[in-house]
Design goal:
heterodimer, A: 288 residues, alpha/beta, Rossmann fold, eleven-stranded mixed sheet, B: 315 residues, mainly alpha, MetI-like fold, globular
């Protein structure tokens, strides 16, 4: 399915494929690996995000941007069923992964999370050694590995952390700096070889140098992984992503705020020639 | 108008000057310091009260006999002062108690912290903590007259548990310390940041794996502190072992189906008889008491150190 297919959803405009501006996709878009259609997320009776439809393209970086409270993190967490952990959270509409509905009755959320990993806003290494942090996922998922040492080394190399930690694998992950901890969390995530990595504002707790390292790493990782990133930082979305979804918060008649997808398109197009006035206002700093 | 403003102004100004004392504050402070000093003074008083008779005891009985002797018979004609039978009984009862209390306590803590929904936890936790308030004399009688007859009835072989025995005392004591272990362990598990659990779930962990591989290890120092506190309660517990544990102390009893006197049971028993102040028997109570004090003191010190280490983990 092509991303342009969703253009007829009210309030959402989707750009055509093809312009090779900044943030253009690496190749012509194939079938999306994930697809959201008419997804709404509720917390109890409250509808936090309304009617979201967008594709996630394989081995591309898709960014979700928008002001606070626009529901971008909520949508992200619905992609690997992390919302299941919040009592009262409920998802309507369809989130499909290779055509399979993630919220179908017979789907095991543990299996979903093995294929769709997540990196969080605040680095959250376990209070275990660096080695055990990386080996945790393969161990709990019962991965058949010929050499755990090799797997740990590969994951740490892929997360651009190996050279900094190879001599202290037995020390606590908490002894690392914030940026290193976040890369450790990325290494830990890729150690289970997921297909998709979700990142929830992964750089918001980091300084600019650590942020730049993570951004380089994301570009590197997008050769092998599909990445979805939520960010507050528009420049970051512009720098690293191939596709961008802009969310905003709408206030309804009952004065309740609901998150809503305004525009989804190739990143270069969204930042240089947004289709929606609200997107333009946001990226030019007129609101949000 | 202008007069009233200036009046108000000067009144406010004088209110700021330090004329007004607050006698209540200083009185409260004195009372609070006094309250704190009472407990410190009590501890020091206990140590002093223990020291003199203990010294008196060791002037007549060698420390070597006390520490290595295998018979404790201060009330017999043939007196012997080897503390090992008492220590062995204490260890046996404590061992049985921990075998019961650690799995039950940790299981309850994991259930409350990881599995129970918030409403269930809100109801269950106070109930478990309430168990800690049951007087130990009640546990003792329940053990002796309700649990032990059942144990004797169901025992598969002929040589079953005696009327009083270390096993039943240990079981009752184990049930007694479950709330201590459950409550403190649950506190330390609840203190494990939510972000660690989310990280583990995001790595495709099951709930059981999150509990046992992330939450329990992260809360380990708090759990160890809870267990150490449980041990020190078990070692110091008196009523259950006095009622249900038995009194044998002339030899080391290793079979938990037999009765034997623990350190605390000996002290309680001999103290309720009439022994002349200053006699060797009298002093022997203090020698055992001093040993008990040292053991519980050491355990509490370990426990406090563990709790402190636990606090540092996430800072």
């Amino acid at each position: 399915m092509n991303p342009t297919d969703t253009t007829n959803r009210p309030g959402v405009s989707i750009a055509g494929v093809g312009t090779q501006a900044t943030g253009a996709p690496k190749s012509d878009a194939a079938d999306p690996v994930m697809e959201l259609s008419g997804v709404s997320v509720y917390y109890g009776a409250y509808e936090a995000v309304r009617d979201t439809s967008m594709p996630i393209q394989e081995k591309q970086i898709t960014a979700m941007i928008g002001p606070s409270g626009c529901g971008k993190s909520t949508i992200l967490r619905s992609l690997n069923r992390m919302n299941d952990l919040i009592p009262g959270a409920r998802v309507s509409g369809a989130v499909t992964y290779h055509g399979q509905d993630l919220y179908a009755k017979d789907v095991d959320p543990i299996e979903v999370r093995r294929r769709i990993g997540m990196v969080f806003q605040k680095p959250n290494p376990f209070p275990k050694s660096i080695y055990d942090n990386v080996a945790y996922g393969p161990r709990v998922t019962g991965m058949k590995v010929s050499s755990m040492d090799d797997l740990v080394e590969k994951a740490l190399r892929d997360a651009a952390l190996w050279d900094e930690v190879k001599d202290k694998l037995k020390t606590s992950g908490l002894a690392l700096s914030g940026g290193q901890q976040q890369r450790l969390c990325i290494a830990r995530t890729i150690a289970v070889r997921p297909e998709i990595i979700l990142m929830d504002e992964p750089c918001s707790a980091l300084d600019p140098i650590a942020t730049a390292k993570i951004e380089d790493l994301m570009s590197e990782l997008s050769n092998d992984y599909t990445i979805v990133i939520v960010t507050h930082n528009m420049q970051q979305a512009a720098r690293v992503s191939h596709y961008t979804a802009f969310f905003t918060a709408e206030v309804d008649e009952q004065q309740e705020r609901h998150g809503r997808l305004v525009e989804f398109s190739q990143t270069g197009k969204l930042f240089t020639n947004p289709a929606d006035k609200r997107t333009e206002d946001y990226i030019t700093g007129r609101f949000g | 108008m202008s007069t009233s403003t200036s009046n108000a102004g000067s009144a406010a100004g004088s209110a700021l000057r330090g004329g007004r004392r607050r006698p209540v504050d200083s009185t409260v402070k004195v009372l609070l310091v006094a309250a704190a000093l009472v407990s410190v003074a009590t501890t020091i008083g206990i140590v002093i009260a223990l020291v003199q008779p203990t010294i008196g005891f060791f002037q007549q009985v060698s420390i070597v006999e006390f520490v290595t002797g295998t018979s404790w018979t201060p009330t017999f004609a043939q007196k012997a002062y080897g503390v090992l039978p008492l220590v062995a009984a204490t260890l046996t009862v404590t061992g049985v108690a921990l075998t019961i209390a650690v799995p039950l306590g940790l299981g309850s803590a994991i259930y409350l912290s990881e599995y129970a929904n918030p409403r269930t936890r809100k109801v269950l936790k106070p109930i478990i903590e309430l168990l800690a308030g049951v007087p130990t004399v009640v546990y003792g009688f329940v053990a002796l007259f309700a649990l032990n007859p059942l144990l004797q009835k169901w025992w598969p072989t002929d040589n079953g548990p005696a009327f009083q025995n270390l096993l039943i005392a240990g079981i009752a004591m184990g049930i007694m310390i479950v709330p201590t272990i459950a409550s403190i362990s649950e506190d330390s598990m609840a203190a494990v940041p939510r972000s660690l659990r989310e990280g583990a779930y995001a790595l495709a962990s099951t709930k059981m794996q999150v509990s046992t591989r992330v939450v329990v290890p992260a809360a380990m120092s708090g759990i160890v502190a809870a267990v150490v506190l449980g041990i020190s309660r078990a070692v110091g517990e008196t009523m259950i072992v006095t009622i249900a544990g038995g009194l044998t102390s002339d030899r080391i009893v290793l079979n938990p189906l037999e009765g034997a006197a623990t350190m605390t049971a000996f002290i309680a028993n001999i103290s309720s008889g009439d022994i002349p102040v200053g006699s060797l028997d009298y002093d022997s109570v203090f020698a055992v008491g001093a040993l008990l004090f040292l053991i519980t003191f050491a355990l509490n010190a370990v426990s406090i150190r563990m709790v402190r280490r636990f606090r540092e983990v996430y800072e």
